[in-house]
Design brief:
Elements lengths: L1 E5 L11 H15 L3 E7 L2 H7 L4 E10 L2 E12 L2 E7 L1 H4 L10 H19 L5 E5 L6 H8 L10 E6 L7 E2 L2 H7 L4 H4 L4 E2 L2 E3 H8 L2 E4 L2 H7 L8 H5 L6 E3 L26 H15 L9 E8 L5 H13 L3 E8 L1 H13 L4 E5 L3 H10 L2 E4 L9 H7 L3 E5 L2 H6 L14 E3 L4 H15 L2 H13 L4 H14 L2
Parallel strand pairs: 1-2, 1-6, 2-5, 6-7, 7-11, 11-12, 13-14, 13-16, 14-15, 16-17, 17-18
Antiparallel strand pairs: 3-4, 4-5, 8-10, 9-10
Helix pairs in contact: 1-19, 11-14, 12-13, 12-17
Length: 476
């Protein structure tokens, strides 16, 4: 089966969050199962620098957006059995960042149109076109509304995965025609209308054969008023075709026994020695004080969704109980400043790196005792799975995929628990959970059993890929 993933980011070329990990890992697992998986994404400036010419230009074609005429340069390369296509255009993509520009709607409209044109240009006829989030969400509508009579596009079926429901690709109804050449009737009928605008995410939902999100619990949350971000009303129309499939992680990349990015490799049999060395060297790299107390790690976008205000509020308690905190991430300016202030308030006890550093991320997973994820909402989450893989116990709010992957220790479930969890999105709830974790850190037999359970957790992509294959094959 030919499967084309359409995405705004994917490893190993462009990443701002878990979306990149998921698209790459799923495509990789599908190729292992003998499927023909390919990925198409924009040719960002960061990718140009990364590949350093090691991609092949395979053609160029024009893309028209009303009165606008732009050229799409199409590049190709191969990684781990996956075919990567890159849509290049200097005007839209030769920029420092992936997102965050005033014309993002226009940039990804160009990308979407280019992907549609690319199919016929390459005579590429995937059986499944898998849309990830809002950026290319108009693609199913484009093909079905404008190319439905063309036999070339027959038998192409669409799957849309909602990774982050907070981003819905909203734009002015005028641009429906101005960018995409689609009739205003689609807006008036309500098929693409959402919150008084056009939503590319809603459009993808309404025009796809199947819709998924990234964990079973989050699928249920999206159907509620509280957790649906307004999509609950939309998803009611497609309820029979909506499913939550839990993400996995790449067990080759995230393996403490083979990880060349951490200070000392280890497995369950020698984790005490391995984690001790990783802890000491992690602290040293941040010029922090060596300690026998627990280290609390955080690798995250520093945004409201991730519960960073709860972590900042709980930090003095962690320090007072003999803990240390190591943070890697970037995001909202206020959150970045708050974490930097913690380093000044607690010198030697808090280390902060603003930005992203892949090697450091691996080292934090390996060198921490606990991993903080008190998210307000978390569709799936990857970090808690990685931390389990490294014998680092996650402390999570029980929401979305965190609820599907972390079994919180209650005192009565030592044989199965693999972390800690709480429900109320409040600082006291997080502090109480941290206190419980620290209490058990000083009970060697309890702590060791929880780490053993963490190592036993199974979160690779094999099960998830089978679920996606079953979904693809169920589409007539």
């Amino acid at each position: 089966m030919k499967i084309l993933m359409v995405t705004s980011e994917a490893n190993p070329y462009a990443k701002t969050g878990g979306l990149a990990d998921v698209v790459y890992a799923l495509a990789k697992e599908l190729t292992i199962h003998g499927e023909e998986a390919s990925i198409v994404m924009p040719y960002y400036q960061t990718i140009v620098k990364r590949v350093n010419g090691n991609v092949k230009l395979i053609g160029s074609f024009d893309v028209f957006m009303s009165w606008r005429k732009q050229t799409a340069d199409l590049y190709r390369t191969y990684v781990d059995g996956i075919t990567y296509y890159f849509v290049g255009n200097a005007y839209y993509f030769n920029r420092e960042n992936i997102y965050g520009y005033y014309d993002d709607i226009e940039r990804f409209a160009f990308f979407t149109l280019a992907v549609r044109n690319m199919l016929k240009f390459l005579k590429l006829k995937p059986r499944i076109i898998h849309i990830h989030d809002w950026q290319a969400g108009m693609l199913p509508a484009l093909i079905k509304e404008q190319n439905g009579a063309d036999p070339f596009y027959d038998n192409m079926r669409f799957v849309t995965t909602i990774h982050n429901p907070a981003f819905q690709g909203l734009f002015d109804p005028f641009l429906l025609s101005d960018f995409y050449g689609l009739s205003d009737d689609l807006f008036r009928s309500g098929k693409v209308r959402f919150k008084g605008a056009v939503s590319s995410l809603k459009t993808a939902i309404m025009y796809s054969e199947k819709i998924t999100t990234v964990s079973p619990t989050h699928a249920g949350e999206l159907l509620t008023e509280e957790g649906g971000h307004g999509l609950n009303h939309v998803l009611q129309y497609v309820l029979d075709d909506f499913k939550g499939i839990l993400n996995g992680i790449d067990y080759e990349e995230w393996n403490p026994q083979t990880d060349g990015k951490i200070f000392s490799r280890y497995g369950y049999s020698d984790y005490k020695i391995g984690k001790r060395d990783n802890k000491d060297k992690l602290l040293q790299s941040f010029n922090m004080s060596k300690t026998d107390g627990p280290i609390f790690g955080l690798v995250s976008r520093l945004t409201w969704q991730k519960g960073v205000e709860l972590i900042i509020n709980a930090a003095p308690h962690i320090i007072s109980r003999g803990g240390s905190i190591v943070v890697l991430g970037s995001g909202e300016y206020g959150a970045e400043q708050d974490f930097n202030r913690l380093t000044q308030r607690f010198p030697g006890k808090v280390g902060v790196y603003i930005g992203y550093n892949d090697e450091l991320a691996h080292r934090i997973y390996a060198g921490s005792d606990y991993f903080l994820m008190p998210s307000l909402f978390e569709p799936c989450g990857i970090s808690q799975m990685i931390s389990l893989r490294y014998g680092t116990l996650p402390i999570v709010r029980m929401t979305g995929g965190l609820r599907d992957t972390v079994i919180p220790f209650t005192g009565a479930n030592l044989d199965t628990a693999n972390g800690y969890g709480f429900y109320d999105y409040t600082t006291p709830a997080l502090i109480d959970t941290i206190s419980w974790a620290i209490d058990n850190f000083h009970k060697p037999e309890v702590h060791a059993q929880l780490i053993y359970n963490a190592f036993r957790s199974e979160n690779d992509w094999a099960k998830s890929a089978h679920a996606y294959l079953d979904l693809y094959e169920s589409i007539e």
